[in-house]
Design a protein that fits this description.
This protein is mainly β and 140 residues long. It contains 1 helix and 12 strands, in the order E-E-E-E-E-E-E-E-E-E-E-E-H. Strands 1, 2, 3, 4, 5, 6, 7, 8, 9, 10, 11 and 12 form a 12-stranded mixed β-sheet that branches.
Amino acid sequence: MFSKIKEEGKGQVTQSTGNQRNVLAAGTTIVGEIKSDGDFRIDGTVNGTIQTNGRIVVGKTGKIDGTVKCVNAEVEGNISGNLYVKELLSLKNSAVITGDVVVGKLAIEPGATFDATCKMDSSSTITKNETTKQKREKVS
């Protein structure tokens, strides 16, 4: 699963093996930054940043406190922070989202909690806005 992982610095892991699926099991906590080309399933806790060119699934026991950047996301658990989804964000009835959200498309099942500032935008604009925001933060 993590056959070609290299450590880039304290609290940062990069995975670049392609279309593999990564799983963070319930009871596991990661603090730091995760980058991957593959899909992720989160049933544990992440405090930090997750960035992938794939899909993120947050299970019922999953919790993310930080920034998520992905192509598609399906959420049953909790996300608190900034969420950037290029294509589809799908919230199941047990999902709890708080923070700032930028998505291409949004699907919310009845029962989900969505307490967020939301901007729906095309995938090319999401990348552009995110880059512009990062440049402003570096200047400040």
